[in-house]
Amino acid sequence: MHDIETLVIGAGAVGLACARALSMTGREVMVLERHDLIGSETSARNSEVIHAGIYYPKDSLKARLCVEGKKQLYRFCEDNGIAHERIGKLIVAVNETQVAELEKIRQKASENGVNDLAFLDAGELTKLEPALNASGALLSPSTGILDSHGFMLALQGGLEAHGGQVVLNTKVDHIGSLDGGGYRVAIDAGGPDPYALSCRELVVAAGHGAPALMADLPDAGAPTAFLAKGSYFKLQGKAPFERLIYPVPEPGGLGVHLTLDLQHQARFGPDVEWVDGFDYRVDPSRAEKFYRAIRSYWPDLPDGTLIPDYSGIRPKIAGPGEASADFRIEGPEKHGLKGLVALYGIESPGLTAALAIGAMVAPLL
């Protein structure tokens, strides 16, 4: 017998979505979270954007799960009273060379099933967002914003309504296979003595920590982890924009974009900084690059109005100079370990895709 039927490691948006979906199948589910609050790493340190599914390679997990997850997320927010807004976004080209890039982006979006993008020329764009300086843009009407913590609380509530539970302040040190089937999960809960739980099924949704934990199981083929920090600056005062503003994407990320929270306060970011460890402080000197990037599409950004806000660290599984990696969601058919699913590299659009990822996990088990 096992202590618990199904363990999920990690109470971020994806781990909670997986746990909720598993509990809805009748399983006994427990989520282990090392922090004292759900969703306090990657899930809490992002732009809170509901992505449309525009940029990702055709047939990739990112493309498929983002497009499906977006539909589910809007419906989930409406059904559960979670604050959200289908605010729309503009992908702006600041010169004629980038205008040609917009057509490539629209084609890629169409391949992913996103067929609602509209091209705006400079005149149409000026009427829509007069403060923008751009040669053209793509309008994505299905892009939105949400209260990410409200979303995660609703996921936790759904899990608990089906008999599951989240256990906080519980750090998983390592995992191992049991001879009779199932897994042993060694835990440090902050007390004098570590202990272990056994489970029949295990879902490793530990974000940054997933590759290291899965390295305990050599046959799993865990990837190498990389860390890409993204800093955000908030705007002092009101921004003259009604929609999210994104530049044409850059290697490693989507460029320094303007997002709006649900109170329409503007923030800019994230940039891309490859790091070796976790330091969430925002270096004020990075503002210089932000001003330069933002003024390429908003030339009237006043001096002294960008204030360091917060940062996040993307759980990358491809390093500097490498092509961006797809999500890796691997079950027994991939690694041969019965009753185990490991999730790697769940960065953007992981928040948008969370419900679709959760729906994918149970069949893999």
TrEMBL record:
Gene3D superfamilies (UniProt xref): D-Amino Acid Oxidase, subunit A, domain 2, FAD/NAD(P)-binding domain
InterPro entries reported in the protein's UniProt record: FAD-dep_OxRdtase (IPR006076), FAD/NAD-bd_sf (IPR036188)
Keywords assigned: FAD, Flavoprotein, Oxidoreductase
Domain FAD dependent oxidoreductase: 7-362
Cofactor(s) listed: FAD
Entry coiled-coil feature ranges: none
GO molecular function: (S)-2-hydroxyglutarate dehydrogenase activity
PANTHER family: L-2-HYDROXYGLUTARATE DEHYDROGENASE, MITOCHONDRIAL (PTHR43104)
Sequence similarity: Belongs to the L2HGDH family.
Protein name per Swiss-Prot or TrEMBL: NAD(P)/FAD-dependent oxidoreductase
Species, as recorded: Roseibium aggregatum
